[in-house]
Amino acid sequence: MPEQVMSEVLDNRRVGDYHVLSLTAPGIAETARPGHFVTLAMGGEESSMVLRRAFAIHQIASRGVYGGTLDIAVAVQGLGTKWLAERRRHDVVSLVGPLGQPFSLPKQGVSCVLVGGGYGSAPLFMLAQDLRDRGCRVDMVIGASTEAKLFGVLELKRLASSLTITTDDGSAGVRGRVTDALGEAIDRAATDVVYACGPMPMLAEVARISTKRRVFSQCAVEESMACGIGVCMTCVLPVVGDDGVTRMVRSCIDGPVFRGDRVRWQDIGTIPSDAVGAPDQEVVR
Questions:
Q1: Multiple choice CATH, 103-222, 3.30.70.60, 3.40.190.10, 3.40.50.80, 1.20.272.10
Q2: Residue 222 has what pLDDT?
C-alpha cells in the first residue's frame, strides 16, 4: 500500500537540464520497484497549487539513519516544478508512494532493449540493474532534442551492454530520433523484450516497431495525473484487455506501465465508440 511521509531533501544536484533530488522515503523506498512513481505536494503548506505532481522513481538506496531514500529527476516546466527544483538540503516535502503498476520482469535471462526519451531514461536505471541481476542482456537506446536534455549517459554506459544515443540536432550521438535507431538495436541484440519510457508519440512508435518485429513491449506512459490514486479520472486512456475489449483505464493505478500492443495510441484523448461505457459520440477530453 502507498504511504504518505514528510520527506527531507538530502541533496539537489544538476544533471544536464534537470535537477535530481534525493529524498528520505522510509517505508516507500523499501517496497518500490522499477516503474513505480511518487507524487509530491508543491509550494508548501500555504501554496495555492493544490494538485500534486507525479515523478518516476529514478533510484532507491538505504542510507543509515535516514532509512530508505529515493531519487527523482525534475524538469522545470511550470511553477510547481520550479518550486521543487529550488528545494535545498533539509527542506521538507510531502511524498506519497510507491504508486502505480511496475514493469513486469522476465523469470529467466532474456535479451532486453531499454528505450528512454529525455529524462524518461531516469526510471530505466533501476530496471536495467534488476534485469542484469536476473541474467538478462541489457541494451539501451536513449535520445533527446539536444545533448543537455539527455539524462545519465555515463552511468547508463556502465549498466548496458551497448548504448545508442540520438539527438534531434546532432549535438551528441546520431542525429535523429530515438525510434530511428530502435529497429537496428532490436535486430542486433535478437531482442525478446522492449521497455520504454518517454513522451507519448515516442512510445506509440516504440510499440509499433516492436509489434512489427513480433517483440513484446512494455511502455510507461506519460499521461497527466491530477491525483495519482485513481480518483479524478484525468489520466484515462483506451487499452485493449485480455478479452479483446477496449476499456478506459487509469494510468495512475492500472499503469503507468502497459503492454505497447494493447494501448490504442491513435485514440488517446478520445473515448472510442467501441469502448466499454462509451457515449454515442466520441468525446474529446
A1: 3.40.50.80
A2: 87
